[in-house]
Amino acid sequence: MNKDYQADATSLVSADAQIGKGTRIWQFCNIMGGCVIGENCNIGQNVFVEGGVRLGDHVKVKNNVALYQGVVCEDDVFLGPNCVFTNVINPRSFIERKHEFQQTVVKKGATVGANATILCGNTIGRYAMIGAGAVVTHDVGDYQLVIGNPARAAGYVCMCGCRLQETQEKGVWRCPACGGCYRLTADGGMHRFDGSK
Q: Distances from the Cα of 190 to the Cαs of 41, 67, 142, 175, in angstroms?
C-alpha cells in the first residue's frame, strides 16, 4: 500500500484505491477501491469517492462532496462544498441502470462552486467557473462563467479566477487583476494569448 499520502484515522481508504504522493484525506471520508486520486490533492471532510472516479494532481475537494463512477477531474480542479454530481439521467430505485452511466469531465483548472449540481454527460471546460448553486445541464466552454438554474453564460473568467473585461479591440478580453489577454474564437470559445502585437 502506498504510504506517501495522509489519511485521517476516521476515514475508510480501500487498499485498492490509487492515491498519489502528498495527498491529504480528512475526517470521515470513504475512498473506494478502483478510484484514482493524483498527487497533492486535498480531500475534505465527509467526501465519498466511488470506484472508477479519476482525480488529477492538485485537486481540491471541499467538504460533503460525493463523486460517483464516471466523474473525471483533470489537474488543478476545485470542487466547492456540497457540490453534486450525477451519473445517470433517469434513475429509479427499482430499475438497474449501471450500463447507462454517463461520464462527466471537469477539465484542468475549472472551479465548481458550493452547492452547484452537475448533471452527467457534460464537460466543464478548462478554467471555467460554475457559480454557487448553479445547475449545469449542458457543456460549459473554456474560461466560461455560468450561473443560475439552469446555468446560463454570464461572461468569462481568467486563469486567476477574476472576471474578464472586454476591451475596445474586437474579440479581445483582459483580466483587470493579472493583465492576462484572451481572444474569442469563431465558435464562441475563448483562448489565452500573450497580448503582444
A: 28, 28, 6, 13
